[in-house]
Write a structure and sequence with these properties.
This protein has one domain: Mannitol-specific EII, Chain A, CATH 3.40.930.10. About 40% of the residues lie in helices and about 20% in strands. Strands 1, 2, 3, 4, 5 and 6 form a six-stranded mixed β-sheet that branches. A hairpin with a 2-residue loop joins strand 2 and strand 3. The longest helix has 14 residues. The radius of gyration is 15 Å and the shape is globular. The chain starts with a helix and ends in a 12-residue tail after the last helix.
Length: about 160
Amino acid sequence: MARIKDLLQENLIIEDIKAQDKPGVLREFAELITAAGKSRDADEIIRILMERESLGSTGIGGGIAIPHGKLPRTSDMIVAFGRSSSGVAYQSMDGEPVYLFFLLMTPEENPGEHLKTLARISRILKNPTLRENLRNATRRQELQRLIEEEDGKYPQPHAVSLK
């Protein structure tokens, strides 16, 4: 499993999400991913993410959402980050607005990596200082640096050998 800092590219960071609702946020991310050349079909990304949201909100509370899904015809994991300065009505578990978003799209055939990466994202977001610093950062490079520094605090995950 790769670290978040190895997956998150500067061109996959939204400094200030403009959308005010869940479908708008997911569209913003889908358009970002297609503009970065990671997928050709923004509508497919939105459909996959909305299907996942129909099972239960990925707004986990505390101003955080981790929308995620499995994208067919991709071999690479896609991690994107976005921040909303005004907060988004996202139907979070705690009913509060969401300010910080990590989006994860993974290949269909690798559910283990999908779960491990979700767990790693959740782990770094448990740090309240990081959450506050991300909300107050003003530039894309600063957002990326904060995430990379926090992710670097945790050991590199190792593959398990079944020998």
